[in-house]
Amino acid sequence: MAEEKDNALQEEEKDQTVELYAADSDENPDDDFVPEDFSEDAEAVAAVAAPVTEEYDENQIQVLEGLEAVRKRPGMYIGTTSSRGLHHLVYEIVDNSIDEALAGFCDTIRVTINPGDSVTVEDNGRGIPTGLHPTKGIPTPEVVYMILHAGGKFGGGGYKIAGGLHGVGGSVVNALSEWMELDDTHEGIRATERFERGHVARPYQIIPAEPGRDHGVRITFKPDSTLFEDTVFVYDVLLNRLREQAFLNAGVHIILRDERVEPARENDMKFDGGIKSFVTYLNNQRHDALIHPNVIYMRGLKGTSIAEVALQYNDSYNETLLTFANNMNTVEGGTHETGFKAGLTKVLNDYARKAGILKDSDKKLSGEDVREGLVAIVSVKLEDAQFESQTKAKLGNSEIRTLVESVVSTKLAEYLDENPADAKAILDKALAASRAREAARKARELTRRKGLLEGSSLPGKLADCQERNADLTELYLVEGDSAGGSAKSGRDSRFQAILPLRGKVLNVEKTRIDKVYANPSLIPIMQALGCGVGDEFDATKLRYGKIIIMSDADVDGAHIQILLLTFFFRHMRQLIDDGHVYIAQPPLYKVYKRAGRSQEYYAFSDGERDQYIAMLGGQGVEADRYKGLGEMDAEQLWETTMDPERRTLKKVSIEDAISADETFSLLMGDKVEPRRQFIEENAKFAENLDI
Which domains are seen in the chain, by residue range? Predict the structure, then answer.
């Protein structure tokens, strides 16, 4: 988890967005909004609603030329200007090199983070043709990096299969960079050009060829700090994405190097096993026992389309299904995912019936049953891929569903027939999941009969708020009755609700869903949120727009945070995806002058404590360390942790689902040794806590 801390010396503190396991939020959190009644201030309302007095005619219609539109609205092209958008710039350039690899002309890609946080992406592909463009009359590389929707992916024969669908990647990176350097070699002819903020700074020119290099492209760019919230690249974020690309393109050599550190850090990635190696890697990272020893691999063709599937089962209760189309991670799924799920469910049910494992009177196994403990990769490559947007989150090609379902139905059935021991192990796992699902249904019905999960039933310890519009409300999950009492007294009851937590929360990583419904520590949370869990989750029924975890700033508090985050990630994932989950930041110290305590400041780190001590003169200054939330009275808790005008919240978000899944499995799973190793390796990054 990476977090962004504000400066406690500033007069105003605002909620901040942070990352969970290599993640930057999709968007900045909404400013805290306190519901107000404007009915008594008609003049204020009238002022807001007053029409603009300036004349509106043809002179007010603005036309943005060239790349100005990208700089004006960067979020339309890369989704966000946060750290996530920053790294997306690298992906756009790398994707162009990957497209060369898909076309069979590139086998090596080098990505280097340079001192000063510029990035160089270099490949040994064909290079960009260096002649004048026939319709634009300017050098072709300049067309690629200066004009939106220009490239070899629109039926001109440059690429049959490409992830870079819209032809905006290179030009968008150029537009959003302080500067970009192009070094292009095509058929032995080498040319260079420099751009600054989307404009030509050094004209296109032919220069002597580089010895031993007669083809390929080298792009170096520095993101524009006036457009991005942060311009420091995170090595591990890039590593995760590039490793993924190396798995998806068997035999392609990808090197990531960081020259900002001494000695330079480098990862050299090449996986001849392709997505089979990907599944093995994911299972190794999870540290779960395997149900069957071999990765099951399937591949099929239809016309120019290719579908690959690799899968293996482990003994966990969780599903890891990753889908890709032309190397793009389709995080929202699409037709290829639908086809895979349908084929898998049908094949396992058919085999179970044929083998007598399921009797005629038995219910069919559900999709959830057959995917428990599954780690699977579905990768398709096709011409004219239909993505929903430039972010390529969902595939829409209807013919791909038929191809993937056919591949799974045919190849997996053959594998099960040829490997009956593996088939029995997989179906035993699915049957156990089915029994657990039935037990969960009975547990759910039992709790409902008791009125515990009905919409009208709220936990007894919940101090609810007055506002009923979920977009305007907050629920604090507070560690301990003592802190819960202070929070209830100090809150703004108009929009803030308080739920004291009852003991340690269940570790759901080691538990099936039927145990979740019966757990006394989780039932009050499910009651309060009102949106259900697992396959019954319904985001429209969520009762609070912000869910804020507030625990002590110590080891036990951190443990409670990770237990709750594990619960949300495994059973209410959409709460995190939609940006509803936050972590409160209580202060670590109160710094004050002994005489009269008239000057008091709250410090959220050792460094801020030292700054305040120095600011107050050092002599006679006290710094009290808060051992827990219960030590603060209602007024102090409001001032430091709950007042929207002054508090600091950490917004929980997930950029890389693979990394998040691995981390939860590592931290909360059964295997002790990998967790101990992780703690030993990362302890140096933790803040020193006076506990």
Answer: 1-35+457-586+629-691 (3.40.50.670), 71-269 (3.30.565.10), 275-418 (3.30.230.10), 588-625 (no CATH)
